[in-house]
Amino acid sequence: MFHKVKTIKAAEDYNLIIAFSDGTVKRYDINPLFHIWEVFNDLKTIPGLYEQVKVDAGGYGISWNDEIDLACNELWENGIEL
């Protein structure tokens, strides 16, 4: 089952605030990803890129550019409900 993303907000300390289509709101910490996938370090080194996060068409994920994205299920499963 997909938990579609409705809105996304880039918060402090590389945490994302995600509102899902069912009304659930979660916080997702992307800091661990800096050590797993090198491409995520661009969010720290390219000025303004982190803040440009957007919901992908259909709500099946989020992305910053053509190389950096996260699936809705990753955000749902590893996010902390607020």
Q: Write down the overall mean pLDDT.
A: 96
- Percent range for β-strand residues: 25-35%
Low-confidence sequence ranges: none
Helix count from the secondary structure assignment: 3
What's the CATH class, please? Alpha Beta
Cα-atom Rg, whole angstroms? 12 Å
Share of helix among residues?
Answer: 10-25%
Distance between the termini: 21 Å
Description:
There is one protein chain. The chain is an alpha+beta fold. It contains 3 helices and 7 strands; from the N terminus they run βββααβββαβ. It has a single domain (5-81), classed as NE0471-like N-terminal domain (NE0471 N-terminal domain-like, 2-Layer Sandwich), CATH 3.30.2020.10. The two termini are 21 Å apart. Strands 1-2-3-7 form a 4-stranded antiparallel beta sheet, with helices on one face. Strands 4-5-6 form a 3-stranded antiparallel beta sheet.
Give structural attributes:
82 residues; alpha+beta; 3-stranded antiparallel beta sheet; NE0471 N-terminal domain-like; 18% helix; 7 strands; 4-stranded antiparallel beta sheet
Question: Briefly, what is this?
Answer:
It is globular and about 35 Å long. With 82 residues, the protein is an alpha+beta fold.
Give a topology summary:
Elements: E1 5-11, E2 15-20, E3 25-29, H1 33-36, H2 42-45, E4 54-55, E5 61-63, E6 69-71, H3 72-78, E7 80-81
